[in-house]
Design a protein that fits this description.
Elements: H1 3-33, E1 70-74, H2 81-91, E2 95-97, E3 101-102, E4 117-118, H3 121-130, E5 133-139, E6 142-147, H4 148-156, E7 160-164, H5 167-179, H6 181-186, E8 187-193, H7 197-207, H8 212-226, E9 234-237, H9 241-256
Parallel strand pairs: 1-7, 1-8, 2-7, 3-4, 8-9
Antiparallel strand pairs: 3-6, 5-6
Helix pairs in contact: 2-9, 7-8
Length: 267
């Protein structure tokens, strides 16, 4: 037999062995998987290949919302309420500032509708006569006022509203809230004050913006304002900025958990 014939004869058994081995491996894969890839049901079909109707997801039920707050902060001049309000707004993004109206001229960098609503004297007076303001006052020849529509509009959007007013403005808003259930339900009043007039005087002097006579006049007014602390729901004796902010946030969270405002449990 030639060498060519021997080569042909010896190649056939090896080829048949490889084919058998491949068939064996293929059958083993089929057994392990329980079903070969060619037999797997297509997406959207049942195990026997019957098409399955796609189910629409269940509609999402919106979570009930906690009733929003109208947080009113008042303090004597130099008491730190502006600083506290700035830090509270920066820390608590769900809260927005109530924008008040004024007749004074805009200062450098102030924007109408962002810092204040700037009105001329006639426009302001028309709003006073129309009863648009919850409170208004004239300070050093300029008029300031808080629009009822400003507060209710933001509360109805589900936003917590922060209002920074003096004690006279706070008294007017408390009185108006007695006549308006929506305002009464949202209102939370906080009085911020230094521990003593001596501490307040030191703060005013450190400012370096007022003459000694002006400081004494401010202290006289502050003494009368501090005497009103009992008319507020919370008294916050000022310490440091961080501590004042921590306690203010605690007040907000506690008010959110009042049974009159909290979302009731599902039973």
């Amino acid at each position: 037999m030639s060498s060519k014939a021997q080569s042909i004869q010896t190649s056939h058994p090896a080829g048949r062995s490889r084919k058998k081995a491949e068939r064996g491996r293929g059958s083993r894969r089929s057994v392990r998987g329980g079903r070969s890839q060619s037999e797997a049901p297509a997406q959207g079909a049942s195990a026997d290949g019957t098409p399955v109707e796609k189910q629409d997801p269940a509609p999402r039920v919106p979570a009930p919302q906690v009733q929003p707050l109208l947080v009113l902060i008042s303090a004597p001049s130099g008491g730190g309420k502006t600083t506290l309000c700035q830090h509270l707004l920066a820390t608590y993004p769900h809260m927005t500032r109530a924008i008040t109206c004024t007749t004074r001229a805009p200062r450098v960098g102030e924007v109408d509708g962002v810092d204040y609503y700037f009105l001329d004297a006639d426009s302001f007076l028309k709003r006073v006569h129309a009863g648009n303001f919850l409170e208004h006052a004239t300070v050093y020849g300029n008029s300031y006022g808080t629009l009822k529509s400003e507060l209710l509009g933001k509360l109805r959007q589900g936003k917590d509203v922060l209002l920074n007013v003096d004690v006279q403005g706070a008294a007017a808003i408390r009185e108006r809230a007695l006549e308006d259930p929506e305002l009464k339900r949202a209102l939370v009043t906080v009085f911020l004050t230094p521990r003593s007039l001596a501490v307040l005087e030191e703060r005013l002097r450190k400012r370096g913006t007022d003459a000694a006579a002006v400081i004494q006049k401010r202290l006289g007014v502050a003494k009368q304002e501090i005497a009103q602390w009992k008319n507020f729901e919370y008294l916050l004796v000022s310490e440091t900025i961080q501590e004042d902010l921590r306690r203010m946030l605690a007040i907000v969270q506690a008010e959110k958990m009042r049974t009159a405002r909290a979302v009731p449990p599902e039973i």
